[in-house]
Amino acid sequence: MIQIYLKLIQKFGPQMQQDVAIEEMSELTKAIIKYRRKQHDRKATTLDLEHIGEEIADVEIMLDQLKIIYNCSNVVNKFRQQKDERLTRLI
C-alpha cells in the first residue's frame, strides 16, 4: 500500500492529502457524535456502527499518508510504544 500512497501524494500533492486527512477526521468525529446521540435515544443501528467503521478505515488510510508526508513513522512508532507501555501500567 505504501507505493499506492506515494503515488496518491505525488498525483494530488501533500497539501491536498493533508486537507483530505483533516476532512476524514472530521467525518469520523461527526459519525461518532451522531451514533452517541442516536444511542442516547435508543435509535442507533448496526448501519451507524458500520459508518463509524468506514470512517475509521478512511482515517487510518490518511494517517498512513501523513506519516509518509511528514516522514515520521519512526517517531510515531516510538511514541506509540511509549503510550502503549503507559496504558499497560495503568491497568
- Give me the count of strands: 0
How much is the radius of gyration in Å?
16 Å
* Averaged pLDDT: 95
Bulk shape: flat
Class by SSE composition: mainly alpha
| SS strand fraction | under 5%
Along the chain, the helix and strand elements come as HHHH
Total of DSSP H or I helical runs spanning 4+ residues? 4
Give the end-to-end Cα distance, rounded to a whole number of Å: 34 Å
Oligomer: single chain
Q: Major beta sheet, specifics?
A: none
Residue runs with pLDDT of under 50 for 5 or more positions: none
Short overview:
The chain has 91 residues and is mainly α. It is 88% helix and 0% strand. It is flat and about 45 Å long.
Please provide a written account of the structure:
The chain has 91 residues and is mainly alpha-helical. Helix content is 88%, strand content 0%. It is built from four helices and no strands. The protein has helices spanning 2-12, 14-40, 46-69, 73-90. Helix 1 packs across helix 2 (14-40) and helix 2 (14-40) runs antiparallel to helix 3 (46-69).
